[in-house]
Every structure is written in structure tokens, then in C-alpha cells.
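Handout, section 4.2: multi-component inputs.
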Amino acid sequence: MTTVLPDAPTEVIAPATQAGRRTELPARAPASDAPETRRALTGVRFSDLMRLVGAAAASFALTWWAFSQLLPLQGVLGFIVTCFALFVIIFGVLVSLDESGPTVKDRVISVFVHGIGVLMLLALSSVVVFTIVRGWDSLFHGNFWIMDMSATGPLDGLDSGGILYAIIGTLIMIAIALAISVPLGILTAVFLSEVPGRYAKFVRTVVEAMTALPSIVAGLFIYASVVLILGFERSGFAASLAMTVMMLPIIIRSADVVLRLVPGNLKEASLALGASQWRTVWNVTLPTARSGLTTAVILGTARGIGETSPVLLTAGTTTFFNVNPFSGPMVSLPLATFNFVKSPEPTMIARGFGTAVVLMLLVIVLFALARVIGGRGAGVLSPRQLRKRRLESVHDLERITRGERAEADRPTVEQASVDAVAQAAAVAAAERLVARSRRGRRRKDDSE
Amino acid sequence: MVMIDPVQAEPQPEPDTQTEPQPEMQTPDVPRVLAANTGLSDRIFRGVARTGGTIVLLVMLLVGVFLLYNGYKAISVAGFGFLTTQAWEPNNGDFGIAAVLSGTFFIALTAIAIAVPLALGTALYINEYAPRGIKRALISVVDLMAAIPSVVYGLWGLFFLQPLILPFSQWLATYLGWIPILSAPNFDPSDPLASPTLFTSSTFIAGIVVALMVAPIASSIMREVFSQTPLGEREGALALGATRWGVIRSVVLPFSQGGIIGGTMLGLGRALGETIAVYLIISPVFIIQPHILEKGANSISALIALRYNEASALEISALMAAGLALFLVTLAVNFGASTIIARSRSGASSEG
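Output:
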């Protein structure tokens, strides 16, 4: 801090300097008008860089030598593990040559944490890349996207058969599951957050318990009840019921969290204006939480689409197109993947990977959608919503001034419209200001 | 809130006036009954909401009751042996979950042992070390990986990981075989012709795949908690001269203890219930198999997926009972996790 002290303290100290001269104050730095420059607190020093490079080269060479000349070791995985372990050790030794104890610990652990982070990201990206590479061939056959597998034998090449029946099956199943679980789920979440009481608490406890339900057990429940006891055949509808049982608790739980985040003062303001509770929920709570609710639903959908086991038990197996969810077996994308890779034929396995890529794309699209919609917290508006809101308030203002004009002494039309425009401009400016500060705050939040 | 003390608010009777205090002044204030006059629309709304909640409650209870009711038949046939028998032959009346339940735990614990260091390191890296520019992207990647379907991980484990890991398994069994769980009795290190296929389809491989599945989930919970560490305490540690690791060890980790344990247990819950990835990799055995490197493993969910199809009525009931056992274990783990997360200091600053 280089705040300039007021003059008073120096005058107090002055007699003391005459008496004993015990404390020496450093000369005050000449006040300059130049803005303070920020010191760089982090950054990479040249020696750090050299240590990293040196340790990396040494560990690589040592591992190479050990693997090819010294020890009966083999395998890519073993190479990487040994190399990393040697790297950490050599780096630690290098740092300890000219740094103190805590610094050595700090650097070694930093390298270690970086290593784990990179390892995890490598492993995760290998999952995605490997699936895409193995499925690449099947993706570029047009028939893969528009045919079913009914006329394709296990030995046929990739230019025959396709997975459109599984894509359609997935879409139908998830549509039915959503048609049941979204209204019911959001209604229940509203019930949990708006009608509190002992009963709601009990429902919440049960719902939270059911998020622990393994998906295969949800499938087994529908299989045993709907298929075996009620006597329905295995069908797309049974599969979507199993998906619903699995998705409902997930959607309710996250929607409940989102609804509880709606600021209480918004609801109170609405109630204080005389709105009924129902109006408050419909016009204030739900619109405020809209983005969060959408995210909850989309993430639940991604979970539901990807689950194999409930569908495996309830949907049956087919290689034909089936667009009727109520009769005949129906296949979804994960189930088709599962069935393909159980076959020993390489072309079938390639199809399985292709199907997995399509499934992954679907999930990624859903996820990106959730990010775009749900990136904002409750009550924070997008630029478009802000524009819309501003336009509405200008209209409101016009309406109000028109009413005033009718009552009052009818000032000249020009005068009133000039007033309205000025006020509208003021409102717009204020809102722009608010928006900017919000954006700034968001940016700050991101950077933290 | 301004609460007016009723005793002080009561007007004191003037001493010099003859008027006696009013009798109702002396009776203590009874709280008024605040009955809001809810309109018709609100009553309908509450009724509808309550109905929705009740439907969900009924469905959820039905699942539990149904599992219990159906499973009870099988448990009453098997008796106490249900917990101790390893074989699974319900049609002969000889069945139990000793093998599959222990197998489930072996896979889940292997997964957690691998996933927790990975998740912890990744969460620390993203929250403490990663450059600002890529932080958001990394968070998105980890969250996305938590949403990738399990069948994709299963494919990866079966076709990518398994061939790569066999030499590593062999190496572990050769040099670390003296650790009980890493031993492989059927493997002879001195035999140069020993086939590494002994190490395929093992608990270890299934555990790694499940670990990779649950690590993103655990990691994103842990990161969430790390990011809530109070800035003041961080700055305090820095001002006292702590290194970055010093801040993590003395501020971030103690603050996030509850979140770390909770994230781990939620991951454990997911790992216990995982079906397809495990099913694709393991070759099922019905004995307690504590040698995690050796071929042969089992889990309850894989058992259900394997046997539901040609099952007799009793076998379905037995599968229900096994599913009930799995559900109860997962339930206990999840409740433990949410209790720990709720009790801990983590997230205390998240309000407002």
C-alpha cells in the first residue's frame, strides 16, 4: 500500500527524533501520479523451466534405457508410469539442490497434481477418441444412418445395415419418458418447495432415497411388474416406464434445489402485491428458475438416454424398424451398442462403436444445450431477455403516461411524448448499467 | 425483526390516577391465530401439487415395497443361507448372495481406491493450479465425462484397456504378489510360458473402468467444495508465508473434508450399482474371489442382467432379493454421504 500519510504523524515524531532518535522512518517515496503497476506474483522462472525440461529428458532417457536394456519390462502403460515416477524423483532432487524444504515439497506436489490432472484428462479423452476411431469406418456409410439390421447377417460388410431403428427407438422412448417425468417431476418439485410441511419432508426423503436406486433394479421392477405380472409384452413403452422410474428422482432432486434458490424477496414482492400463491408460482417462481429447471431436465435426459440396463430388461431385442411403442420389441442406442459388441464379428463390433459415437454425440449435444441455457443463475437475464424486458417497460410507461394525460389537463402531445421518450431513455440507461454491473460480476465470478 | 416485548409494550398504569388497570391487561397475550384466507385457486393449486407429490411417492414406495414383497419369497426359501451361500442355483433351492455381494464390493472398492486419488488430484488441479483461460473448459470436460453413457466406458475397457493392462497385471502379480489381494495363486512367475490371459476379465480391470466412470462425478463434487473455501482464510495463509501447497494443506483440505468424503461415498454408490461396463468385462464366477488380478469376478447388477431372461418365478424372486440387498447397501452409502456433506462446514458460505 502506498497511501500517502497525512502530515500530522511526522510532526508528532519530530520531538522524539530530537530526544533519543530511536526510530528511523524511511524517507517517503516521492508521490507520483503514475498508476501503480501490478507486480507479477506468479510466473515461470527460467530456472524452473530448465529443471522441468531436464527432469523430463533424464526420466525419459532412463526409462528407455531400463526398458530396452536393463529390466524385463514391457508395455506402454508400464513405461508411462515408470517415466512419471522417475520424473517426480529427479525433479525433486533438482529442486532440492537450491531451494529450501517447504519449497521442494510445494514444487514436487505441484508436479504430482499436474501429473494426475493430465493423466485423468488423457484417460477421459482416450475414451472419446478411441470410440470415435474404432467407429469411424461405419459412420461414413450412408446406409448406416438410414437402414435397419433386418436384412443384414453377421458376416455382411459395413455397406449393409444401419442403426436408424435404434435412433428412432431411443427418441420415442425418451419422448414418452419425458412426457411423464417432466410434468410430474416439476409438479413434485414445486410441491416440495412451495407447500412445505411434514408430508413434503417425507416425500423429499423418499425421493432422495430413490436417487440411490440402481438402474438395473428399476428395470427389474418394471420387468417383473409390467411384463410378468400385468402381462404386457416387452416393448418400447415398458422401457420408457423403466427410464421414467430412474429419471424421476434425479429430475425432482435437482429441480427442487433450483426452485429453492429463487430469491425469497421476489416471491414476497409478488405476494405483497396481492397475487395468489398459484399466480406467484406461475408468474414469478417458475420463470425465474426456468434456466435451472431446463438444465435439470436435460441432465436427467442425458442420464436416461445413456442407460442400458433398464432398457435391456424391458425392451426386448429386434433388428426391425418399430415405431409403435406399445407392441413389439424396440431397441435404443445403448442397447444396440451392447448387442453389436457381444458379437465376435469385427464388422459388428465396428457397428457397435459407430452406434456408441452416435449416442455420445447425442449426449454431447444435450449437454451443450444445458450449458447454453443453464449458464445463468436465477434472475440473471440474457441480453435478449433484457431487451424484451426493456421494451415492455417502455410500453408500460407509455400506457401510464397516456392514462395520466387523459386525467390531467391534457398537455400538448409533443410535450408528453418528449417526456415519455426521456423517461424511457432513462429506464433503458439504468437497466444497461445494471446489466453491465451484472456482467462484470459474472466475469469476476468466472475469473475467481 | 423488531419484536416488541409484550410486558414493556403494555402501558404502565399511572400511579396517581385512580383508574384501575383493565382486567384484560393482566391476562397474558395469546398469540393470534393467523389464518390466511386462501382463495379457491390456491386450494386447487395446493391440491394438485399434493396429488403430484403423492403419485411420485406412491411410485417410489411401490418400487421398494415390490422389491421387498417379491424378494421376501426367495429369502424365506433360502433362510439365513441367503447371506452365506455362494452358489446361485435358485431352482435347486441352493442360492445366496455371498459371492455376488462380495464381488460387488471388491469391484467398487477397487474402483474407489483408484478413483479417489484421481478425482482429488483433478479437482485440486482444476481449482488451484490450472491457468485461468482453460479452467472453465476443464470444468465442462469433467462434467461432460460424468454424463457419458456407461456402455461407452465398457467398450473402452473391453477393447482398449484390457490388452494394455495385461502386462501391468502380470508385473503386479510377479513383484507385488506377496500382498494378499494382489496375489494370483494360479499364476507361476517362474514359468516363461505362463499366459497373460489368466489376467483378463478380472475384478481389477472392471474396477479401473468403473473408477474412470465415477472419478468425474466425485471430482466435480470435490471441486465444487474446494471453490467455496473462504477467500479470507486463503489470504490469511498466504500472508503468513504459506506456499501453494501450504494453503491447500492447511486451508483447502480441512475446509473441504466433508465434501471429499461425501463425493467419495456418492462415487461408491454409483460404483456399486454399475451394470453394463462390469457385465461387458467380467466373466462371472460364483465363489468369493478376493484375488482381484485373476480372471473371474461378479456383481449383483451383472448377475441380474445375466439371469433375468430365462428365469423361473422363484429365480425372479431371488433376483429381486439380490436387487433389494444392492438397493439397501446403496441407500445406506448415499444417506451416509448426504449426512456427511450436510453436517460438514463445507458449503457453509454458500448462502446468499
